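To whoever picks this up:

The nightly regression suite flagged 4-oxalocrotonate decarboxylase as changed. Nothing in the input moved, so I suspect the structure step. Input below, exactly as stored in the fixture:
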Amino acid sequence: MTTWTEGSVATELLACEAERRDRDSFADEWPALDATTGYRIQAETLRRRLERGEKVTGVKLGLTSRAKQQRMGIDTPLVAWLTDAMALGAGDPVPQHALIHPRIEPEIVFVMKERLEGPGVTAEQALAAVGEVRGGAEVIDSRYRDFKFTVGDVLADNASSGAYLIGDVAVRHDELDLAAEAVEVVVDGDVVHRATGADVLGHPAEALALAVNDLATRGSAIEAGWIVLTGGMSDAVFATPGSTVTCRFAHLGDVELECG
Ligand code: OOG
Ligand code: MG
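Regenerated output under the current build:
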């Protein structure tokens, strides 16, 4: 049996990502991999991503909606990192060549105009630091077989980060009722999921506050100019090659991905 350490799990997860190889949860081999250890491994994988030249572009939340929590069987929201290597431009297809079993989910995205630092930040204070609100689509990918993981596993795996696309419609946060903002996930013309901003912890600003307060416990803040993906509003859909997935927001436009 392998004896795992934080460093060797970080190495293994980054190798799985680079080699498009999935693996079993670490739970059986390392039951002590809890959320705290998971966040430490996540920090180590970020350190290695930066060392190879990637730049942090922001933060992502995970499991902020009941739909996602129920699907993954974990009801704790997650915080993880976004880098420039994960960013897609309009018209880019899902990078199937780099991903194992990608899924797509609709997210409300904040672009920060001011630095935000916890602890004790309220949703209202968090929203005041937001410059723009946009629609987004996150392409999640797990290094665990069939997306089967514990909370420690998925935190170590940077909360299943893969790629993300941000829509081109930008509004100010006070121009839109974010809790009421609706989205439809359309696969090849068929609506497969519907959700609203209220599905994200009651309001996406609650997710932003949660992220900044949680980051503060690990000595980090959210910087001006960063983007924040507030978490999948609905369950994700498989990015089946040949299909087109559109996250159709009521006011934030369409965010569309060809699945390669
Ligand atoms: C964990 C990542 C969750 C979200 O928005 O809920 C996430 C997963 O579902 O694999 O990004
Ligand atoms: Mg997500």
